[in-house]
Structure formats: structure tokens, C-alpha cells
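re the bet — no i am not wrong, look at it urself. input seq straight from the record:
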Amino acid sequence: MKAWTQGVQYAYRYARHKFDAFQAFGSNGANGAGLLPHAVVRPLATYAPWRSDGEFQAAYELIRSNTLVDFYRCYDLWQLVAEAGKLAGGDILEIGVWRGGTGCLMARRAKLTGAGATVYLCDTFQGVVKAGSSDRHYAGGEHSDTSEAVVADLAQGMGLDNIKILRGTFPEQTGHLVANATFRLCHIDVDVYESGREILAWVWPRLVRGGIAVFDDYGFLSTGGITRLVNEERGQADRLMLHNLNGHAVFIKL
């Protein structure tokens, strides 16, 4: 019954996708869909390094049923962990873990590269929190079909000993547990504006120079609040912003 109800809720939110776009892009939305900066993106480049990356393929097969993040964004995270490994110190932070797929993928990559980083996985395990007026597809509580045990079982099954799970709303309930840490990479997958804003404000001063904060769901109609937030933040002088056309927004600290 719970799965059926959640399915109906998802369908209802998807039916309102144009309203979400209006919220994300302001007055342009009132003038018709033709003026909205959205289109299906079909890059023409053919280089596909994941096809010959056996380590990634093996790790992805283990985590694929524990994530809603698509194959291409998973590979992007795999590569970002390796790039962040070039930085001088810092741990890895993920907020918005769901069933642990991307967190464990990053932990596997960190272990393979010898980065020596602890991967902190932060989630309420009760679904989305802090949905507001910028998040027309979210009311709160979505993606609650998970548990801390599900994540722990995945990590154990993959032989990962570099993971720590922090249960609770971040940062107010669990941020103090890592307040003195520094980070080389932060993956933010929280779907809604206010939660994303608070997390970015908390983690930014704790990123090492050259550190990376990557937002999932940038540019999707269903997550207009994240698109709005990133567009507001990209003009700050202390960061570079790279838009990966697969749906990632990547901030690099100068």
C-alpha cells in the first residue's frame, strides 16, 4: 500500500513539471514552454571510458539497485573521487544517501585510489526534508523507502571499512559530529532548495582549496529548487561552477 501511494504521489508531481519550471526560472515561465531553457540533451561525443573501466563496471553492478542516480552521473562521481584524490587531505561527505548506492560507489573508488579519506554518509532515512515553495514536486517524506541497515549491509557486502553513517537531518542534527573535519569532495543529493542551501553554506568553509561540491539533479524539471539554488550561487567570486550536461553542477573552491 505504501509503495502504491508513493507511486501516485510521484505521478502527481511529474504532472506538475511545468509549474516547477516556472518556479525555477521566474517570469519566463509565464510566457510559455517555448521560452523555458529546457530541452532533451543529446551530446554527440562518443568517448565512453566507462566501457573499459572494469573496476567501475564491477562496483556499479553491486550498487545499481541501491541508487536512483543514473549510470552516467555515477561514472562522473567515480571520476570526481579520483580527481579529488589529488588534493592535500580532506574527507568525503554525502548528504542524501537513500539506499547507499552512490556513497558506497565513492567509498570503493576512494579505497582503490588510496586516498585515505573517510566517507561520511548523512541521511534522515525518513525521506526528503525542508521542501518549500521552490520545490513543486516535493511535499516532504519522499524516498523514505530505506534504512540505515540497508546502507550498512551494502557497505559490508562490498568490504568497505572507510564509511561512517550519520543518521539525522544535516547539518543541524549531525553536522557537529564532523564540524572539525575538512573535505575534498561533497556530494549533495537532497532534491530541494532549502536543504541544499543550508548544506552548501555549512560545507563551503570546510572544503580544502580546490575542493569540490557537486549537486545532483541540476537542470531537471522535477528539482527546480536545486537549479534555482545553483544559479544563485554560481556568481560567487570564491568558486568555479561547471555544468555537466548529465545533470550535475560542480562547484570548485578557489
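see?? Strands lie at 91-95, 119-123, 163-167, 183-188, 207-215, 239-244, 248-253. told u. also Confidence is low (pLDDT under 50) at residues 12-18, 29-33. so pay up
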